[in-house]
Amino acid sequence: MLRPLRLLAFAAATLLPAVAGHAAPTRPQDVVQAEVLPGWRQADGSHVAALRLTLADQWKTYWRAPGDAGIPPSFDWRGSENLADVKLHWPTPHVFELNGMRTVGYTRELILPLEIRAQNADQPISLRSHVMLGVCRDICVPVDLRIEALLPMTKQPDPAIRAALASGPLDADTAGVKSVACRVEMIPDGLRVTASFQAPPLGGRELAVFETPDPSVWVSESDTRRDGHGVTATADLVPPPGETLALERSRLRITLIGDTGAVDILGCPAN
Fold first, then answer.
1. Relative to the CA of 256, which of 12, 56, 121, 123 has its CA 20 to 30 Å away?
2. Whether 219 and 150 share a structural domain
3. Residue 70: C-alpha distances to residues 65, 67, 103, 104, 136 (Å)
4. Domain range holding 260?
């Protein structure tokens, strides 16, 4: 029988002092509620499940690339049984602006689909994970949780997970992105990358988020500008002190986020 998500441990200090006129939550469980949606087994033997986070009013959590003021999420799947690999499918996030800083994430609810490859496709999967998340209102704090769930062998899809999968960024070809190119310059502590491409407008004040395969590389918030269908975005990439950065153009990821959606661009050749 399926065991719903168990919150084995929340480790966080007092989350937020009282704000004048507002009663602020002081316990992690008042800020975020979590559960596993068990999902279904696909014909190829992989399993689709999801982590659902429900956030208190005015609180938010972060996307995989949260921005300078955000807290990046982390997932440790050690301890799981019959699990070979997990791929996260992030829904399209929102861009938040506060005091001149922009962060990227979600409010109210996040359903994060998990595409799981089993070691033995004919057996159930016992999912165990240590998850570190940032949650934010007036200040940002880390929330530590541990989850357990037994994923059944059912083949009946979950409409909520399917909707979350469909809400992710469009790939570049589907979105009609063209003429992608990057210019790379040396700066004293790393590289400055300027990407240019053609893409339909996504509404609002768009933001291009740069990501490298190496999470230790610091990436600045980009200067993103649009002229008609043309987009130009510049960001600095800085490796840890004492290290050099060898940019893998084919693995550089740029996500353009606007009010009406997002576009995922993988790879950025030279001009």
1. 56
2. no
3. 8, 5, 6, 8, 8
4. 171-266
